[in-house]
Every structure is written in C-alpha cells, then in structure tokens.
Design a protein that fits this description.
188 residues, alpha/beta, Rossmann fold, globular, disordered C terminus, binds flavin mononucleotide, oxidoreductase activity, FMN_Rdtase-like_dom, FMN binding, NAD(P)H-dependent oxidoreductase, NAD(P)H-dep_reductase
Length: 188
C-alpha cells in the first residue's frame, strides 16, 4: 500500500509537518510504503497553466500522487482556510491522480481546532474526485506539542492519530484491494 503525505506548510518547524512525519513513520512501521512531500523543503513555483515545462518538484509531486493508493493532506489553518502553499500544490493535480482514492485531511491551528480549513480541504478533495475519509484531524492550541522522538506529547492526540490512520488504511483496503499492509491496525 503506497501512501503519499503532502505537508502543506512553508514553515521550517511547522507542527502540521511534524504531525505528517509522525503519521508517515507510524504507517511505515505497519508496512505501508510512504512518501512525505514537504513543501517547505521542496517548494513549487506558482502554478501557471501556460507553462510548457514542468518544474522538477512538481513532476515528482504528480508522479508520487499518481502512484499512491491513499493520500494524506496536511495544512496549517490560515485565515480560516488552507495554506497558499498547499492550494498551489493541489492546483498541479486533478482527477487523473485522485480519482477514487481515499484522502485524510489534517490541520494545525492556533485556536482550539482548525475545522474551517478541514472543511475547505474536503471540498477541494471532492472536486479532485478523491474520496474523503470519514475521519479528519485537527491539532490546535496546546495539542501541537511533540516529544523528542517526534511523537505527539499528548496521549489523547496519539489515540486520535491512530484512529484516523486506522480508518484511512481500512478504507484503502476496501477501495484498493490489490494494495497491502502487514497489519489491519495502526497502533501507537
Ligand atoms: C497567516 C496566518 C493566518 C492564521 N490564521 C489562523 C486562523 O484563522 N485560525 C487559527 O486558529 N490560527 C491561525 N493562525 C495560526 C496558525 O494556524 C498556527 O500557528 C498553526 O500552528 C500553524 O501551523 P504550522 O505549525 O503547521 O505552521 C494563522 C497563522 C498565520 C501565519
């Protein structure tokens, strides 16, 4: 089972990126083949439909999502919506890469929860013809803390992450029956 995780922050130590790194490690330990695309480390030019040449990072993004069985999208909550960096990345993509694939949306916000960005993200996923997971995840306020080993500091957050990933993996098994992971459960 191939899972691509797109970390949509343009900030070096972004908590949304730390969350996606933890998710990638957790999924990897269950046997999933994960690829984390960090838009801070691999920035994309502003999407321009007239461009005749494709940027190297953009080509890698498109290929990675195309090859994935499932997708995790992570964003900081910016002004009640998703980051410009993630929206720009998604503009390079379409139903060719998303059709019928399960998608988990996660956010990090200064306030208690970042549901507004998640709602916007799920609407975009719908328009990409992906399938929104019934779970989503928002880390807000003090929940945005991570231990030295990269895991969420709060045990309740760990449980929420495990549930969200377990649902994504279960959904992927149903929708992409040829994909495989070692275990049906993602544990922390
Ligand atoms: C431009 C900007 C807009 C923001 N807008 C919101 C907002 O609407 N709601 C909120 O709760 N936090 C808002 N924040 C705070 C961020 O959501 C918060 O710092 C979050 O943890 C950033 O995610 P990151 O750690 O992945 O960069 C905003 C921060 C910035 C820089």
């Amino acid at each position: 089972m191939k899972i691509v995780l797109i970390a949509g922050s343009n900030r070096r130590n972004a908590t949304s990126t730390q969350l996606l790194k933890y998710m990638a490690d957790t999924l990897g330990s269950q046997g999933a083949d994960t690829a984390l695309i960090n838009l801070y480390d691999h920035p994309l030019p502003l999407y321009a439909p007239d461009d005749e040449t494709l940027d190297e990072n953009a080509a890698f993004l498109i290929r990675s999502v195309d090859e994935a069985d499932a997708i995790v999208l992570g964003t900081p909550e910016y002004h009640g919506s998703i980051s410009g960096a993630l929206k720009n990345a998604l503009d390079y993509l379409g139903s060719n890469e998303f059709l019928g694939k399960p998608v988990l949306s996660v956010s990090s916000s200064g306030g208690a929860v970042g549901v507004s960005s998640l709602t916007h993200l799920q609407a975009i996923v719908r328009n990409l013809h992906g399938l929104n997971s019934p779970e989503w995840l928002s880390l807000g306020g003090n929940a945005r803390q991570f231990a030295a080993d990269g895991s969420p500091a709060d045990s309740g957050v760990k449980q929420r992450v495990a549930r969200a990933l377990d649902t994504l993996v279960s959904l992927t098994r149903v929708l992409r029956p040829t994909s495989n992971v070692k275990s049906s459960e993602v544990r922390v």
